[in-house]
Amino acid sequence: MAYEAPITDYDHIVENCTCAFCGCNCDDLDYLVKDGHVVAVRHACRLGASKIMEDLDQRLLVPMVRDDDGELKEVDWDTALDKAAEYIANSIRPIFYGWSETSIECMKEGVALGEYIGAVLDNQATICHGPSLLAVQNAGYPVQTLGEVQSRADMCVFSGSNPMNSHPRHLARYSVFCRGYFRTRGRFDRTVVTMDPKFTDTAKVSDLWVGFEQNGDYGFYNAIRAVLKGKELYQDVISGIPREDIYELAEAMKNAEFGTLFFGLGLTHTLSKQRSIDIAIKMIIDLNKFTKWGLTPMRGHFNVNGFNIFMAFESGFPLGVDYCRGYPRFLSGETNTIDLLTRGECDVFMVVAADPGAHYPNGAVQHLAKIPVIQVDIHWGPSTEIADVVLPGSFIGVECGGTSYRMDGVPIYMKKAIDKPETCRDDEWIIRELKERVMKLREEPNVAPKYVPNPAAL
Amino acid sequence: MEYILKNGIVFDPTNNVKGEKKDVMFKDGKIVEQVSDDAKVLDVTDKLVMPAGIDPHAHIAGPKLVVGRMYRPEDSRRGATQKTSVIRGESGFSIPSCPATGYRYSRMGYGTVVEAAMPPLEGKHTHEEICAIPNIDVPALPLFGNNWFVFEFAKENKIDELAAFISSWLKITKGYGVKIVNPCGSEAWGWGKNVHGFDDKPPYFDVTSREVVKALAKANEKLGLPHSIHIHPNDLGHPGNVPTTLETLDSIKDVKKNAGVRDQTIHCCHLQFHAYQGNSWKDASSGAEEIAKYINSTDHVTCDVGQVTLDETTTMTADAPMEYDLYKLSGLKWVNKDIEFETAAGIIPVIYSAKSPVNTLQWAIGLELFLHIDDPWKVCLTTDHPNAGPFQRYPRIMSWLMSNTRRMEMIENGEVHKWVNSRTTLPTIDREYDFNDIAIISRAAPAKIYGFEDRGALTPGYNADIAVYDIKPNEIDPSKEYEAIEKGFSLTDYTIKDGKILVKDKEIVQVKKSRTIWTNVMGLEKEEQAVIDGIMPFFNQYYSVKWENYPVHDHYLSDPIRVDVQASK
After folding, report:
1. A30 in any annotated domain
2. pLDDT at residue B105, rounded to an integer
3. In this structure, is residue A95 part of a structural domain?
4. Nearest-CA distance from A17 to chain B in Å?
């Protein structure tokens, strides 16, 4: 890595800004601002700093509507909003997807619009930590805030997660290298274990690498649970790991004073999907019979947890919330975005601060190409190529304030540091405008003439 | 806008109105003595009129609620109802969504509900949910009982500093009063342990539960806060916890009260869970009589009951070690949520069954407490929602309290387990509450205990928070017509909040924004700054957020009600 001279040419510093990249939500960043732009970021990792500094790279600046020739044409805000509102008002099965890179304040408008028109609201969890949420509904959720890990944990396990690449400051700020109240020597006071078929960068800084086979996670955790319950293992090698090593690891986990399991998409997206998380959660619960253990899903986007929390308190369900019947409902496989798209049910798709064009399975994207897609985002992406209306938003935590929830559920207010480009609008404003326009275009569907209580709740 | 509620049968215990037929008038959101001839007349002839209800202890907003909703879709589904032109779609039974929570309280004639546990670090989250709940005012109690700074002040008996800390943290979290949950126990849970009894210490801290509680009580009185310390004592739910409970209550008896608005210096919540005799569940029995005797003989203690309603519900408490004990009993899905340096929390679904001996015992102990405590001003109606049952069961509890016939029917028909005969005194009590008693335990007493001076009574100048029930007190025999009592208290004819008619003829006709109530202590600005300066090195080094991000900003409050208190020096 070449030496880069520190930036000295700036107008002023904005302190204690919050990073709008991963689920670490580091709230200690200093932005160096010159001529209304962030020219340098202190304390951030390279992922966060580059996102913040290169805010104008491939930036969507003007509203656009796709014309009859299939080309995106720049239009004024009124035209674009009217077009988008018309699509939504005339829809039968709309999906409003994304939300993980915008603020809770914007989601509030989104849920109001979704409830009005009867949409499905879903976020990126549907394609990332969705299995974790399903597992939480099956097995439970023993968690702790990251400050607890910093001060107490003497054993940190990373399973199917490579924070050295994906959450670069996690180890330094919250889990491994940082000095905590009871872990005064930081890294030296902790045992770090990486469980991953790959020898990742996180494995390189760990004390122990457990390289179980691809898709071997379920069998491996099952074996640890068996050992914790005092059972004997009969196979010599389980999921590619020798029996003796499993005994030794289970013993070490039992003898930790405070242990934490961090897991990522490597665990959620192997063959057994949510069952892998199920058994990992149950293993953590079992370990609590001996000592203190907790876990934390390594959430990717800075507000992906926020959407799940927000929807849970607004509707009772964390993701895939379907309002089409005038009340919230959720059923995995029925009301999740991918299922709705691959079945061809959805007829209008609004994506807010996400890039389904880049991340969805082929079948889902194919359906997206057939239906009107409204994009609210700050950057160009593959989704722009299939979008019929593009509404340029603003950058939460840089150009616009807002609330987000860290991976451990701690709420953070991300403050505004600079002004947004003149032609862009805040996400919250855009969704509110859409809501008001839709309300003018269509009477609210699915309204009960009278409140009828649910007999099950009486 | 002026209104007159005409010819209702009014129960307003604070003003000593016991079932008089009279008019209640209000104007511009306040109760008034006189209105002009233009006033709109609402005819409520012979119907039951009370101040709007006040729930002194419920869990309705905050981080553990949301995890409960997230991980129990089966519960959310149970309460789903379709939106109307006035209200949003609802969901949830024991942990309703935020909108459903507000609507359901409103339909029962409630106007104020205290959120009983707010972790300061996640105070923003609690207030976000409060903003999402319509129709009721929600004060929140921040948790102090396992806070490391509190441990330090308590250990060194620095009451002045502790008082400044509390006053500062109430501002920071926009909290109303001091909540203590399993003092020292939730900290011990940081290591998977618990404290046992009132004189135990958590690992690494040289401070006992007794020292923490006494210090907080002294600091609370030093500040003269409108509410006393609000305690969930150690050993919740353990057979044989009566001595711990009594020691906890007794340890405060010498602390001098310093607030005219209330009578108590300690409020013990969900007392039912703290009134078990015996050594294990095998030989457990009721300790309600002993505890009631203590409360009857003193004047510094008030309580709420946490009545078991015999439903499937969700338990959630900052007493995290207890939740793991419950997990070991039931094996149901377990949630734990530890908050750095402040508290912990646990959640587990629970099925209270009338067929179960233990659940029947718990059910009976709750009722025994209501019936053995002589002075209804010392006891409040709660289910510790959702722990012992969901709040929409309050009307059923009222019917149990008003009808010995119903209670004996349940006991004699075998609707509840026979332990009720051998392990409790419930079958021997024939006391029945009257409407005045009900008005006390569900509105007047909570208002007094919280030091509210704007609600809980129909005094001129107070908020026009009024409930009118479809019950004719002069015609009904509650003892025999218990079903009509339950039905009548479930849905109001009118719920009026701040002079706005929210419920009319059992339907919500209007929705209003909720407000939080918080206590602003004045006169300790210098001391507060000194305390903050003192803890700042620790905060900067160990907390996982920046100080700037710690307080609940005004952004998270909608039109809050600030209660100013002048601290005595």
Report:
1. no
2. 98
3. yes
4. 9
d(C-alpha A375, C-alpha A359), whole Å: 15
Shared domain for A111 and A172, answered yes or no, is no
Regarding whether A110 and A199 lie in a shared domain, the answer is no
Report yes or no on A331 lying in a domain: yes
- Minimal C-alpha gap between B428 and chain A (Å): 31
pLDDT, tens only, B174-201:
999 999 999 999 999 999 999 999 999 9
180-219 in B: which are within 8 Å (CB) of A? 189-192, 204
* Segment B528-549, tens digit of pLDDT: 999 999 999 999 999 999 999 9
| Reported confidence tier of residue A3, pLDDT bands at 50, 70, 90 | confident
Mark which residues 42-61 of B lie under 8 Å from A by CB: 61
Do both A278 and A177 map to the same domain? Answer: yes
Question: Where do we find the tokens 């275009």?
Answer: A441
| Domain containing residue A222: CATH number | 3.40.228.10
Beta strands at B53-58 and B110-118: parallel, antiparallel or unpaired? parallel
B16 contacts: CB under 8 Å, gap ≥ 6: none
End-to-end CA distance of chain B: 43
| Shortest CA distance from B554: residue in chain A | A413
Residue of A141, A145, A292 with shortest CB distance to B335: A141
DSSP assignment, residue A172?
I
* CB nearest to A312's CB, from B66, B93, B543: B66
Closest CA to B113 of B464, B405, B402, B383: B383
Q: Give the total number of structural domains in chain A.
A: 2
The tokens for B562 are: 């600030």
CA–CA min distance A453, chain B (Å) = 6
CB-nearest to A314 from B98, B542, B546 is B98
Q: What phi and psi values does residue B468 have, to the nearest 5 degrees?
A: -120, 120
pTM of the model: 0.97
- DSSP codes, A321-370: EE-TTSS-B--TTTSSHHHHHHTT--SEEEEES--HHHHS-HHHHHHHHH
pLDDT tens sequence across A181-219:
999 999 999 999 999 999 999 999 999 999 999 999 999
Q: Which of A242, A277, A297 is the last residue of a domain?
A: A297
Dihedrals phi, psi of B256, to nearest 5 degrees: -80, 130
Question: Residue A456's pLDDT is what?
Answer: 86
Q: Which residue of A lies nearest to B339 if distances are taken between CA atoms?
A: A145
Task: Tell whether B98 lies on the interface with A, counting CB pairs under 8 A.
Answer: yes
Q: How many whole angstroms separate alpha carbon B391 and alpha carbon B388?
A: 9
How many Cβ pairs closer than 8 A exist between chain A and B? Answer: 227
Q: For residues A24 and A30, what is the distance between their CA atoms, to the nearest angstrom?
A: 16
Query: Given B83, B122, B546, which is nearest A115 (Cβ)?
Result: B83
Domain boundary among A297, A323, A347: A297
CA–CA distance, B559 with B569 (Å, rounded to integer): 30
